[in-house]
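step: validate -> pass
step: tokenize input -> pass
step: predict -> running
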Amino acid sequence: MRTRRVQALFVAAVLLVVGAGISGCGSSSSSGGGGSSDKGGTIALLLPETKTTRYEEQDKPNFERRVRELCPKCTVIYANADQDSAK
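step: predict -> pass
step: emit ->
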């Protein structure tokens, strides 16, 4: 049960960081419109482990696709914690 709780907290933290990163790619009101930034940026994605295939087969590709849609010039840095809480 502790593992599920840790995973839920981890996913919530990742989504919070992702939301903050993606919102930074949006255009400002002074730029005259448009939905994406010309500047780009870097967004990190850290997944908890590889034993659950969903992370690698669904979450990572969906995340990267959505970032490309919202911020075409943004770069996604990906890492996997391999079930190591220190990572």
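step: describe -> Strands lie at 41-47, 74-80.
step: cleanup -> pass
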